[in-house]
Amino acid sequence: MKLYGFWRSLATYRVKVALGLKGMKVDEVSIDLLKGMQHQADFKAVNPQAVVPVLILDEGGPPLFQSMAIMEYLEETRPQPAILPKDPAGRARVRGLALIAAADGHPLVTPRIRGYMEKELKLDEPTRNKWLSHWTLEALKAIEGHLKEKETGKFCHGDSPTMADICLCGQVVGATAYFKCDVSSVPTAMRIYEECMKIDAFSKPHPMKQPGAQAH
Question: Containing H/E element for 30?
Answer without folding.
Answer: strand 27-30
